[in-house]
């Protein structure tokens, strides 16, 4: 099978005689520190999933490099401060002022409608040039983007107060995200969309699940519906313990979720086997930074035995600060052996 066929078969639980698809997420930190090792992983275990180029006729007005030390301004006008090169910085100051509790002055927010000037012909040429499974390069992220605009602390208070200005802006933001996804799904040949929001702390959601269901779940259902209406797959990323919302994401038809399955406990996910594809990931809190390759192999075996059902797992991990290159390599080697039924150790 081609990579495209392999990923689709895995998402549809009909991957009966092939390996798990692969994808490495590699932060600039890892490329700067372990360039040779990263190249070796890419050579021996090439990705099956790629992102389309974000080809725009009108470019977004960003400033700086999100991974460089210093200041970066994103498409929305949010200002990030970064003190560690190779990773993403943090927003320290809101662009909707702290004293503006009613969200009356939105003049510093720029909704990046440049995304709607997509060069669809260029994107389609890319999709036709590869046999890999192609995802959109845009990431609708309403919960996180609102924190970038307002800062996390202020936005959490806003969620409790729900000023009319905030609620109106959330509708406008969601409408924009839907327009962007509709464009990608209707006019391009990508295989799937992706969206994200980090919802989990170490043990539970960052907000009450009922609040999530009321305000954010409907947005995600719209994104998934847009994808499926056009024959595309829907992928979502969320860090932390999101066990409380997984049933609702599955109910919405989400095809694949990138989540910290070891943070939630692999065994706690067994009831979701065959209902959603776990798009990784290997534990980057402990295993990738502290363990041995043998322990990585045992962890892969544990995931496969718990969650694989003629698919349902994508061999994905993130190579970021603290990660050991030998553990990254072993993650993909072990998945190759596991799905082929060969001995790991």
Which stretches are low in confidence, meaning pLDDT under 50 for 5 or more residues running? none
Assign the CATH class. Alpha Beta
**What is the domain total for the residues?**
1
Q: Based on the structure given, which CATH architecture is correct?
A: Alpha-Beta Barrel
Give me the number of helical elements.
14
Strand order of the largest sheet: 1-11-10-9-8-7
For the report, how would you describe the main beta sheet?
A: 6 strands, parallel
State which percent range the strand residues make up.
5-15%
Helix and strand content put the structural class at: alpha/beta
Task: Evaluate the radius of gyration.
Answer: 20 Å
pLDDT averaged residue by residue: 96
- Overall morphology: globular
What portion of residues is helical?
40-55%
What string, H for helix and E for strand, traces the elements in order? Answer: HEHHEEEEHEHHHEHHEHEHEHHEH
* CATH domain topology: TIM Barrel
Distance between the termini: 27 Å
Layout of strands and helices, then pairs:
Blueprint: H1 3-11, E1 22-26, H2 28-33, H3 35-44, E2 49-51, E3 70-73, E4 79-82, E5 90-91, H4 120-129, E6 133-135, H5 142-150, H6 152-161, H7 164-187, E7 192-196, H8 209-215, H9 217-229, E8 233-238, H10 246-251, E9 256-259, H11 261-264, E10 277-279, H12 287-290, H13 293-307, E11 313-319, H14 325-339
Parallel strand pairs: 1-11, 2-6, 7-8, 8-9, 9-10, 10-11
Antiparallel strand pairs: 3-4, 4-5
